[in-house]
Each structure stands twice: as structure tokens, then as C-alpha cells.
What we know:
- Chain A: Its EC number is 1.2.4.4.
- Chain A: Residues 29-204 form the Transketolase-like pyrimidine-binding domain.
- The complex is a heterodimer of chains A (350) and B (396).
- Chain A is an alpha/beta fold and 350 residues long.
- Chain A has helices at residues 11-14, 31-45, 68-72, 84-96, 115-121, 159-163, 176-188, 238-252, 270-280, 295-307, 330-333, 337-348; strands at residues 26-30, 50-53, 77-79, 101-104, 138-144, 169-171, 193-198, 206-210, 222-225, 230-234, 257-261, 264-266, 283-290, 316-320.
- In chain A, helix 8 (238-252) crosses helix 12 (337-348).
- With 396 residues, chain B is an alpha/beta fold.
- The longest helix of chain B is centred in the first third of the chain and has 26 residues, at 50-75.
- Chain B starts with a helix and ends in a 12-residue tail after the last helix.
- The chains are: A alpha/beta (350), B alpha/beta (396).
Amino acid sequence: MQRAATRKFSSLLFGTSPEAPSGVPATRRTMLQSISNAIDITLTKDKTACLFGEDIAFGGVFRVAEGLRQKHGENRVFNTPLCEQGIAGFAIGLSAIGITTIAEIQFADYIFPAFDQIVNEAAKYRYRSGGQFNVGSLLIRAPYGAVDHGALYHSQSPEAYFAHTPGLKVVIPRGPIQAKGLLLASIRDQNPVLFFEPKMLYRSAVADVPNEDYEIPLGKAEILKEGKDITLIGYGLQLVHMEKAMIRAEKELKISCELIDLRTISPLDRETIIDSVKKTGRVLIAHEAPKFGGFAGEIATIINENCFLHLEAPIHRVCGWDTPFPLVFEKMYYPDEHRIFEGIKSTINF
Amino acid sequence: MLSHIRRCFSFSQKLTFTDPNALKIPTFRCIDENGLPLKGAEVYIDAVSKSLLMDIYKTMVEVREFDTIFYDLQRQGKVSFYMQNTGEEGLQAGTAAALDKDDWICPQYRELGLFFWRGFDIQLASHQMYGNKLDLGEGKQMPVHYGCNAAKIQHVSSPLATQIPQAAGLGYGLKIRGEQNICVCFYGEGAASEGDAHAGLNFAATTKAHTLFVCRNNKYAISTPITDQFASDGIAPRGVGYGMPSIRADGNDVFAAYNAVKESRKLVLSTPGPVLLEFMTYRVGHHSTSDDSTRYRTKEEIEFYKNVDNPILRTEKFMMHAGWLDFDPVQYAKDVRERVLKAKTVAEHIEFPKWTVMFSNVYDKLTPELERQQEEMKKHLEKYGDKYHIEKHEAV
Ligand SMILES: Cc1ncc(C[n+]2csc(CCOP(=O)(O)OP(=O)(O)O)c2C)c(N)n1
């Protein structure tokens, strides 16, 4: 899990968001350090907030919690036994009496033993009790997605399973500045939130992250670049590949693309998507997860229901193939700039 | 039914709690850390002949040398990942030797010795490390995720503890088919905390499955020490809690390992019903090549298990006392090392599987949609093949 930092700077992706403070003191931070900083702010301000998970005491396998136990004490930053259903259930219990709870699942691939606790319990805690109880102070973080050598069980993108569950919010940051603002908003949101962190960007994404406490609102997409010929919709790591494809498409196809980072998968910012597609008439959606039943299908349906008469080409999805994530074929598996470029081209030439 | 249910429990007028330490299970051991036979263990030591001990030794050394070479290769960036078995070779080889060749094995991932013993050899393991076209797993999983149907070893998979209830089912299947064989399930003391571990033990106990649970208590789950993993007397008492005979043995003593497994196996078949065996051992290496264990444990601790309570060294010392050490361990290791290096060289020059293999074995045959996706990829590769190093894959 310790990999040499290959720093790829992209001012478009890892630059700021309109909701983040500007012109304030900032520190150059990786996404990992930015997430750590948001947790540190939470533990500092909220004296009963807890951070826990497998191997958290020594800092976590990705080192997100580095130094936090020393600073905030072993009662609030601690190891759990190796049991994801235990982590989720324990976290729900803490949140049920209002304690701010940040639980780590070591890899999103290992969230499935906790599925019942998250989907049947956390998601329905409020609804089933007529609003008497809730676990709004619960946040579950998990690194997700490709790392280029993770194969079947260190690469998955499980967002669609959770987005299908009413009562949960699902958030995915794309860069260090967004990670901090979205994480602080997710922790304070009065609903259980799943926060999936693109682990490939942990060390490679770097930005000047404002030092102060700030939030980026949930349920709000961000237009990274305006354009008029095609709308490109993505989130997390996929935006890196989409940006490369976009640069090539704008040059070679002489078009202008609009690039949207959803930031929150659920609840989804329908307006931003609909307005954009009405303007461009063409759309491509990308994600790493398999295509069938993937989240792109939901977005496509919303576009179809709301923009039908504006569409000039079929909605195009570029996704992981409908197979598990296979080691020696990884680069062929997930959508990359070449597949996305070809997708843009066929949509434009339709 | 009523009397049956009532008979299960008895009454008392004493308001007493059962002390959590009431069941302190000792560790069965035959030789000490200097390889000297312990009093009372003669019968167990006699059960291991010189030639059997040599076979056990051979497997341990193969594992150690394979570990050393592939760990180094990962450090040099030649393979993407590795997990060492260092410190646990004894329980692996000792267990392997005590089983029948038709017993099934459900592994976790740190059980390479079982593979070697059963003919999934250094060459096959090397193919898996490179994910080449001779990897039985078709290059799909990360390194060290071995599996071999011919050797009756189910495939390693990363999600922890999933094999535990599966082993209960497999062992039950062996019983209802009337086979005099068992299923051996390996797992770490960390994985023992998963819900699946509890489910597996309870299922095996209630169905009286032909299952032997072997927990490798190597003291760490990545960085998490056993003190954060459980508050009980280790894992062995859990078997008792679920109603099965349970034993704790010294995993770094090949005589203890061999005899404990032999007896456990007999008990599983004669009861019939599951047994839990907890091996006390130590993970001498880092958790994996992604880990640096000096961040969370001391050098002294590691050194003790590397240089003193080490299964290979203890076996060598025993051989010396017994007058069985009629070879040079250094030369022996060198020869094994040569074999590993040769196998590695063969494996690294073999191409990856055909790219179409990506779509195979999702189902028994390609679905129409997968055929369509494969066709889409084919067109894409015709244009962009060089971007994916298609030349490194076997031609379609
Ligand atoms: C369900 C699940 N959760 C977390 C992990 C990540 N993980 C891989 S190995 C490991 C520690 C396992 O420790 P243990 O079972 O004691 O076996 P050991 O590595 O010590 O042999 C963890 C937490 C995983 N693979 N699967």
C-alpha cells in the first residue's frame, strides 16, 4: 500500500471548487493528507468523536490516521477486531446516541460483510422509528477503485449497490480540496453517509488545501469545464481519464466538451445534469464499475426522461466490462482515455 | 422434545459466574526451542520417521527459499505483490504430512507448504506469481492467490474468513457422500473475528461435518496485535463454546503439528464431527510487501522467532541431536534456491493469457452480452492494441 508518489498535477481536476474558501492560508496536501486533516479537525472540535477500523491505531494501512491516536487518545482513535459487520454495527450503536462516528472499512471490496448493517439498519434507522431514532452522525469511509495491481478484491467500485438504498448518501471526491470539504460536510450531515475515496489518487493528487474548516455541500455536482457539444459525466478517478480524452477530443474533433463531476452519487444533482444535456444534446457517462446495473444506467434514465427531445445521439456509457476486475487485464478493463475518446467520437459522429 | 430440551441444561442454587479464564488451554509441544525432545512426548516423536521428517524439512525449505526470492523480486519491482510464510513453515508442512491426499483444503493465503506438499510445485506457483498463461488461475487474481483442483486445494480469495463456513459445507458434503476424508480449513487469528468464522464453526458443529478448523495464531493481523483482536484465551476455547473438541499446539514444532493433526483427523472421522486446532506461531515477515512491520513491533520480538523459536531451525537442531543431520543445510538450501530461480526464469518469460480470457469463466459460457462486449474490445484493440501491450499476451 505504500507506493512511490507519482505526482500528476491537473489544475482542472485538483484545483479548487467554487464552494471552497479562496485567498486563505493553505497547505500543499495530498488527498490522503487532506482527508486526515478533515478528520483531525472533527476530532479536535468534537470531543467525543471517534475514528476506528482495522489497523487504525498505527495509522491505517494507507496512513490516513497517522498521528491521530497520539493526538486524540486511544479511546477515540482505535483498532477494531477484524470484522466489517462488527465495525458497521458498532458504529451504528455509537451514532444512535449522537456520537460522531467515523468508521473505516479497509477496502471498499470488504464492505460486503457489513452490507446488512448498512443497508437494513443504518439506512432505515430513522424511517422505521417514525423519526424517533437516527444515525445521522455516522460516516463510513472506504478506499475504492482501481490501483493497477489490485485485481478482483482490491479494485471494486460498489457505489451502485448503496445508491440503490433509500436512506443512505454516497459521496466520492475527485481531489484533495474536494475531499476535505465533502468529508466535513458528510460527517456533519444528519444522515448516514458512505464516503468512497479513489485510492489511486491518495498520493498522486496534490493541491493547496485551505487550512480552515469548510464544507462543500452534498447533493451538488460541479461543472469543471463548460462546453457546448457534449456533456461528459463522471466521478472520482474516472475524471482523470475523462479529462485526457476531452483534451484530445477538443483538439482532434474540434469540439467543446462540458465536464461534470457528480461529487455526490446519492442524492443526485439532477438539475445540473439535465441543464447541461439540454444545452449540448450529447452525453457520455463513465465509471469503473461494470456496466450492467451500474450507476450510469440511472443517470441515463434521468436524461432520457427529461431531455428526450434535446438528444441528438444515444446516451453513451463507457464502463468496466461485465466481468470481475482481472489482474493482468486491468488496463483493458476499466474505461481509459482511449475508450472514452472513441466514445466521444462515435457520439459526436452519430 | 420437551424432556430433550430440558435435559440439555442443569440447575444450581449457587449464583456464580463462570470465570473467563476457567478454560486455559495449554499448548501441546514435543520438542523444545533447542530441538530437544520433551519428556512424555516420546511416542509422538517416534511417530515421525527420519524419511518423513526429511520430507517435512524439504517442504519447509522450499517455502523459505521461494519466499526469499519472490519477496526480493517484489522489492525490485519485478512482481507486484508477495506475502511471506516465514515462521509458519512448520505448521504448514506438519499439517500437510498428517493428511490423506484426498482430504480437501480450504486455504487463507499463508499456506504455501500445503501446496508444495501436494504437487502444486515451485513451477506452478511461479506461473501464478507472474499471472502468465500457465497460471491455473488465468492471471486473474493477485500474486499468492493459488488454487489447485488436482491437489484438492480450493482457490485462495482475498476476502477473509469466507472459506470458513464453506469448509463446514464441504466437510458436510464429504460426510453425506460417505467418504472417509475430511476438509481442513485454514485461517488466521484475525480472520477468526469475522462473522463468517463464527457461522462456520457453528454450522460444522450442528451438522457434525467432517471439518478440521486450523487457526494459525501468528499474533498479528497486519498491524493489529492479538491484544486488540480478542480478550479471550486465544481461539481454541471458541471451539469448545460451539461444542467441538479443541486443541492448541505449538505450530513451530513439526512433531506437535504432525501429531495434533493426525489425532484431530481421526477424531473428526470417528465422532463424526468437527475439531478446532489452534497453532501458536509467529508471522516473522511483514504482513505483505505493502507493509512495514517495524512500525508496530520490536526488532527483538521478530529476531526471537527468526533465530530461536523457528520451525526450520528447531527441526535442524533436532536432526543434529538425533544424528539425522547427514547433509549440509547450507548446500541443501542452495540447491533449492537454484530450483526456485530456474522456475522463476521459466515463468517470467511466458506470455500472458490471450486477452479474450478476460471474458471467460465469468459464467460457464459467454453470455450474448459478454460476446458483444468482447467484440467491442476486439475492435478497440485493433486500433489501440499497442496501448495495452497486447504483444505480451498470447495471440488470439
Ligand atoms: C473481509 C476482509 N477484510 C479485510 C481484509 C484486509 N486484510 C487482508 S489480510 C488482513 C489481516 C489478516 O490477519 P490474519 O487472519 O491473522 O492472518 P495473517 O495475515 O496473520 O496470516 C486484513 C485485515 C480482507 N482481505 N478481507
